[in-house]
Amino acid sequence: MSAQNKKKILNDPVYGFITIPNELVFDLVEHPYFQRLRRIKQLGLSELVYPGALHTRFHHALGAMHLMGQAIQTLRGKGHKINDRECEAAQIAILLHDIGHGPFSHVLEYTILENVPHERLSLLLMHQLNKPFRGALDLAIQMFEGTYKRPFFHQLVSSQLDMDRMDYLNRDSFYTGVAEGTIGADRIIKMLDLVDDQLAIEDKGILSIENFLSSRRIMYWQVYLHKTSLCAESMLVQIIRRAKFLLSQGEEVFASPALNTFLSRSVTLTDFEQHSEYLAAFAQLDDYDIWSCIKFWSRHPDRVLSTLCRMLLERRLFKIMLSDQPFAGELVREIERQLLEKGIREDELSYFLVEGVATNAGYLPSVDNIHIKFRDDRVIDIADASDLPNIKALTNMVRRYYVCWAKNLLQQPVWLV
What we know:
Blueprint: E1 9-12, E2 16-19, H1 23-30, H2 32-35, H3 57-77, H4 84-95, H5 118-130, H6 138-145, H7 152-157, H8 163-176, H9 185-190, E3 192-195, E4 198-202, H10 206-224, H11 227-248, H12 257-263, H13 269-274, H14 276-282, H15 287-297, H16 303-313, E5 319-323, H17 329-341, H18 349-352, E6 353-360, E7 371-373, E8 379-381, H19 382-385, H20 389-393, E9 398-405
Helix pairs in contact: 3-4, 3-8, 4-6, 5-6, 8-10, 11-16
């Protein structure tokens, strides 16, 4: 064991060669909790729109760790004291920041579980990991929580200009081929500085931040909230919802033991905190659990479940309409009428007709600011420092209402095929 080389070099398609910095990080990467991220795609069902979007949370976490190392190096080069222990903890905090993601990441975050955000599960899993590692993650956990005395470390992990966003925008634009999402992360990192232990950007980096915010907005509407992705994600949510309903009615629904744990009951954050078996079951879940069930359920005797599963497997997706205003009731009732004519029962309509709203704000200064540091020591919010009117416009929350439905349902019902 002691003879094993744990300072590995990995070839990343986005950044080139990146290094596992030390033995502790290597052992964390090798742990089953982290290896599970290989089996969770970064962009959920976006591959149905962008065929290249097959990268995983594993890729993303390693990339974010690499950028964290570059950020620390930049800050050290500008005279800020950051010791080796802090550097290691910051890299561990960002490495493990997504370890609490479940299957399909954000898509099923509040469907499989009962209002349990992935950040809280990441923290629980980090505490769980800290036991066999004998407290080696203490400082990383403080940085992740935001309780460490130097706040810029938490800002590097979780803020509106963190290494998480830097990597996923870079990586997602690369794998989807959406060139407009490219953000110039290298230059932004070179512009990083500190003011009273708070993160700031040198004023000569303003243009890079403007591009970063604009690119993020483009990526949200063109990738993360793409209308076809919204349809596919809505279908997946309804599939899980139907499976949970059938189980609640005492019907037999195939699922892996880990997945069945969450389909057959509502598990809350309190349950996770008080009963270790739930965290152990969650740590076994990945995309494969869901896909294997979808394939199996496509032949389930329940016609709603089998139809939705076969439609998703065959990419026969819902039709979608978008609007900047809520849809009129007459339109929704007309769609309901069409579905009823195709043989959908009234008690099944909610599975084949979904209304929702997608929201996006490019920049929220009320949450945490992106500060610009000028040479005369002034520190100004980017929305005020920028001379582009669209940066101020990005602070507005944009809402797009949508309704999607099974317009392409076969005249001969799928469950009879």
